[in-house]
Amino acid sequence: MTTEAFSFSLLATDGMARRGEVKTPHGLVRTPAFMPVGTQATVKAMYPEQVRELGADVVLGNTYHLMLRPTAERVARLGGLHTFMNWQHTILTDSGGFQVMSLAQIRKLSEKGVTFQSHIDGSRHEMTPERSIEIQGLLGSDIQMQLDECLRLPAERKEVERAMQLSLRWAERSRAQFEKMGGPGKGRGLYGIVQGGDVADLRVASAQALSQMPFEGYSIGGLAVGEPQDVMLRMLEITTPVLPTTKPRYLMGVGTPDDIVESVARGVDMFDCVMPTRAGRHGLAYTRFGKINLKNARHADDPRPLDEESSCPGARTYSRAYLHHLIRAGEGLGGMLLTWNNLAYYQSMMQGIRDAIEAGRFADFKAEVKEGWAKGDLPALG
Amino acid sequence: MTTEAFSFSLLATDGMARRGEVKTPHGLVRTPAFMPVGTQATVKAMYPEQVRELGADVVLGNTYHLMLRPTAERVARLGGLHTFMNWQHTILTDSGGFQVMSLAQIRKLSEKGVTFQSHIDGSRHEMTPERSIEIQGLLGSDIQMQLDECLRLPAERKEVERAMQLSLRWAERSRAQFEKMGGPGKGRGLYGIVQGGDVADLRVASAQALSQMPFEGYSIGGLAVGEPQDVMLRMLEITTPVLPTTKPRYLMGVGTPDDIVESVARGVDMFDCVMPTRAGRHGLAYTRFGKINLKNARHADDPRPLDEESSCPGARTYSRAYLHHLIRAGEGLGGMLLTWNNLAYYQSMMQGIRDAIEAGRFADFKAEVKEGWAKGDLPALG
């Protein structure tokens, strides 16, 4: 069996904004793309068919969570992550490094990798660049990430530089392991991850060094970790011009709708974020008119839907009064409907972004969506 | 506008088992019927469209919960419970009495009614037969219940008799209020509730007295409250023959699949129970082969679906290993899929019951489903 190579096609550009297509063993990913987060092999509170119907071409799985439960070996025995979670489209996995540093207990970093204890049962594990790639291969991930070290900001320049240099050495080791496991031959891709915190010259150095390595794509890590939005955007402005135009660029863990349109304007192609799913379970709705907190008492008697023009039943069919009731009563359907609404809004925004770039009117589109958010929610009736 | 009268048609009988049809302002209810429980205006972890697609003609709403939150007056302002919860089919409501006695704090019973404090915020409320019917009318319920007093078993005969007699006096008052609110003219029905605990002559006396009152249907309450199944079935055997054959009979809060087929065999037409929904959220699956506990480690590597012959994706599409993972990981999708499976199994069983009665082979059907449950789950592979 011949598997076609992983590829990226640039279909159109509009300023720095790019409209493209990533080809993986599980289909085409239209970019700019938003990837719903499926941490534990499920996009929380959603059936996979719903996620697909909203227009998602790819979901993200978390290596750290999956290696601990149900374990990568078990997923492999069961036919891989696509079959396990009933998602026969593209899957991107992170390296596990970010969660090891943020969730695991008693972690110890060395040149070799990180040892840590599971947050679930305290069991001891070792994560190295090689092991991360091995796990991602067992999961059957189409788009894999090198292991890196991601610092929280603010951090000292010296510390940022050390972590960035370590990440470059881990990039080499990750790549070697990916080749050894036949990743490219299976049509899979491995992305290198740009680090460098909020230090401009370190970001450039990281991006330049990675560009010399044969990755299928480039991630921008270590942003949206506590710094102001303008810092993040400045880092993008100096990073994306250094990256090869022929490869997709993925801004990890970002972000709000505003973060996304601003990052697309700076040449980013792929995004993932827990916001639409997490916020949904907590009663927050993303809409054309900005964010709406359904917990607020002003919705208790409001018969209007979230957005009657939406094609998503979660947004169109149920009253705000009902959503308010469900969230207040702690009913699962509240999170199901708001997550549905939020992912629908994110995916429709991505479609709008893609259409606008193709039509050469991305700047206008960006201004229009911002105007909608600024307008805010319509006042309650009565 | 003329609304047709609430009606019950007996289409076929097979022994004591009855195949019928209840007509309400929101459609036909095929009996024997199982009513999924939608306590707080939602069948937990299910979209209403799914509930309908599984074959449910009616869902149950809990008056106690809804009167406290979002309140009956608010639901009425928002267009009634059908619109509020996006269920344009029949809704049955209980009287609230059972939950007042089991959930509320500091309750005080008198001839007039019950005063109690909300389990949500401690606020004081009064529930009388008149207020219960008023609330059910505000909700827009198609099938309403008289207020009654439901005792837990075992209980002394004297106490059982007192509660039964009180319930009869409340039946009269409930009926008067229902007439006053124009219930019959709106095509709605009010059911009287047979009480009498596990005391045969009190059950008969209750059923006889209620049969003299003009109810659209008869509920059998105060069973499945701690007594063995054979006691419950004996009570049914002496109760249903006393009730008018021309009215539907509803066994409240029952039950397991076995309880249901045995009760149908004794002349019951309608059922409700939280088991399929609650069990689903706790990792238990109802299937043709009995109950399966997905938490059990034996499922961790099992690639088989729950039931590949089921028409429900929750039963057919996902492996037991995946369901096991979701439940262990506390993922909402686990409860969503298992609830879906369980309600699908219950509704397919009801369809089987209805078909069997029409075909005059209900006894055979009962033997067959029991054989399946007794066979138990297939052993794991490997």
UniProtKB/TrEMBL annotation, chains A, B:
Pathway: tRNA modification; tRNA-queuosine biosynthesis. Residues 253-259, 277-281 are annotated as: RNA binding. GO terms for cellular component: cytosol. It catalyses: 7-aminomethyl-7-carbaguanine + guanosine(34) in tRNA = 7-aminomethyl-7-carbaguanosine(34) in tRNA + guanine. It comes from the Bacteria. One of its GO terms (biological process) is tRNA queuosine(34) biosynthetic process. Pfam families: TGT (PF01702). One of its GO terms (molecular function) is tRNA-guanosine(34) queuine transglycosylase activity. The keyword Cytoplasm does not apply. InterPro entries: ArchSynthase1/Queuine_TRR, TGT, TGT-like_sf, tRNA_ribo_trans-like. Keywords: Glycosyltransferase, Queuosine biosynthesis, Transferase, tRNA processing. Substrate binds at D94, S95, G96, G97, F98, D148, Q195, G222. Its EC number is 2.4.2.29. Belongs to the queuine tRNA-ribosyltransferase family. Catalyzes the base-exchange of a guanine (G) residue with the queuine precursor 7-aminomethyl-7-deazaguanine (PreQ1) at position 34 (anticodon wobble position) in tRNAs with GU(N) anticodons (tRNA-Asp, -Asn, -His and -Tyr). Catalysis occurs through a double-displacement mechanism. The nucleophile active site attacks the C1' of nucleotide 34 to detach the guanine base from the RNA, forming a covalent enzyme-RNA intermediate. The proton acceptor active site deprotonates the incoming PreQ1, allowing a nucleophilic attack on the C1' of the ribose to form the product. This is Queuine tRNA-ribosyltransferase. It comes from Breoghania corrubedonensis. The gene is tgt.
